[in-house]
Automatic annotation (TrEMBL):
This is Amine oxidase domain-containing protein. Residues 451-679 form the Amine oxidase domain. It comes from the Bacteria. The lineage of its organism: Bacteria, Pseudomonadati, Pseudomonadota, Alphaproteobacteria, Hyphomicrobiales. SUPFAM superfamilies: FAD/NAD(P)-binding domain. PANTHER family: AMINE OXIDASE, PROTOPORPHYRINOGEN OXIDASE.
Amino acid sequence: MAKRRVAIVGGGIAGLVAAFELSRTPSEYDISVYQMGWRVGGKLTSGRDHRHRNIEHGLHIWFGFYENAFRLLCEAYREWSPPDKHALAINRIEDAICPQEFTPIGNGDETDPPLFDVEFWPTEGRPGCGRADLSLAGCMARIIDLVRRYYQTTLRRNVTLQRLAPTLVDRRSAQRPIAAEAVPRGVPVEECLDLAAERSARLDVETPWTNRDDVEFISSALGDSVGALKQAGFAAIPDGDLLVQAMELAAALVTGVLWDVLVQQRSIKELDEEDFRDWLVRHGAARSLVAQSPLLKALYDTMFQYPGGRLERASYGAGTATQVVLRMLATYRGAVAWELQAGSGEVVIAPLFEVLKQRGVKFHFFHKLSAIALSPDQESVAALQFNRQVDLRDPNTGYDPIVINSRLRGFSSAPDWQQIKDGEELENKSVDLESFWCDHSVGMVRLERGKHFDDVILAVPIGALKPCCGELMAASGPFRTMATELQLVPSLAVQLWCSVDLRGLGWPKRKPALVSGPKQLNIWADMSQVLSFEPAGPRSLHYLCDVFPSDLYLEPADATGVQQSGQDEASRLTRWWLERRAHVFWPTVARPGNFDWSALFVWNGSTGAEALREQYIHANINPSDCCVATAAGTSKWRLRSDQIGIDHLYVAGSWIDTGFNTECVETAVMSGMQAARAISGVEREIVGETFLHAPFEYLGPCDLLRRYVRCWP
């Protein structure tokens, strides 16, 4: 029987995962990946520049709940068999990605205190190995236990708070009988939290209408604990204030999940109609708290939930935000945060790419999608049209993107011009073949269904896809709405090679991965481990990033000078941050209004602010480089891979409906798995796609009415 031919457009992580899943049975599928430019990986790619430095799209912190992404990487490393694998510096997943334990939270532009030390307790296991417990009852119990442990740790570290530690007296939870027992009067906060965690662990999700008493007890116990801490004066002490904030937010979160998700069985998309902050207020959090808490700001900052890169437009659908918080804090394994030990293109993408090559997947580089044609009846995909960006000197051999640096297999940050016809001329013209605004083409390639492919997976980011989809958008109202309503988030990425180490900068603590520091670079991680695979010289390496307030990503494809405008603004913001904000964390080399430019390592002898020219600063304004926000009210427009309404056409990417609709590696991996499943029909588990989704969501109205009636007296 002839193989089913699948054309995957886009070689980002979603497209690569779709190819990985389908190629598990290479005898059934003939898979071709079409990619703009000279490498694969999308936002997760990286490349070596002319100085052999690793250049990233941005900072990539993996979280300990990335079950699908870790499992994928584990499989890829086991199967990966380049001829020099034994000699590679990193040839197994245990060396590729390691826990990052110290994750402080900054206090924004405030300096009193400038940050809060946050460290999560390690847990057993490793993401992607074995099964994770995603039960609602388990998550509730672990969130409450996390709060309890935070309470214990804070008291141990602060003698003043120990003296203030209250008991619950004359509070609702101390007086309300629960089943056959009541919480004793005068119970300590810690014991009250223990009781709440115990109640949570035995919630019955199969018969949610039977949980009302337990839900009221848990909610009251948490709320009463917060009230007791406030009454005892905890909020007047910085450590105690952050503890009170954490407990109040946790109380609102748990209460909201128990009432809205467990008892009322509301869907995630329904909850996503409301912003997370408003939802927390509705479930008991103070409006002033959600407006000012660095803990809540850290969530929006980490997940880039600022449409257009503008802080004033902050918005995060409550359902998805709740999923993220619970997965991040209640289901992590090993550690909350994990860091790549070299370039993402080297430790993630290259092994995956080479495994696909081993399996027979074909890659066609320098193919930029220009149009999607439908059949005359507008019901099926008929053809794909690409601009062929360059001609190869040896078209029969094809383009080989892999380069070897410091015993690592990866990619370069520019094409290998030696493999490209007229490559020297293109290099001299600084042609950027990964740019949305680059129109360089040497010809057109048209692929037709039935002749070249049977099915198509569009794995191109939605921002870059829209200009190619005029006919598709006209034929599919749901796709048109999704493409129109989803909002993009441009970002700013900076890499600084320094001539001094952390202590030389003035940072007295351990190696950090920090969020919510001073704008306009409020995420910072010391990534000096990457220097082990770069030329000697720099003493430390720092990755910084943030959202980038700009409308440049909206410029049409024929606009000129767009990227340069973005670069100019990115450089200005970076210099401003170093001179005006870096002192918050690096007081030895910076003070308000001044930065010691000799702290930056230079290769060409640049002095003063010119040293910035030898660092890496990039405005991610390419539509394909932008993140997709999960703003309140937008989740309902997302479609699953097979819901476009056009036969033989599927979609993949962090912008589709995966059941976990937030911008991250895990979501992109889930989307690729979903697309492969839609084509193959093979039911492989996608961890987390049903997390918190109401099991009765699709019952008829009469059934729903009966269940709701049973929830209330």
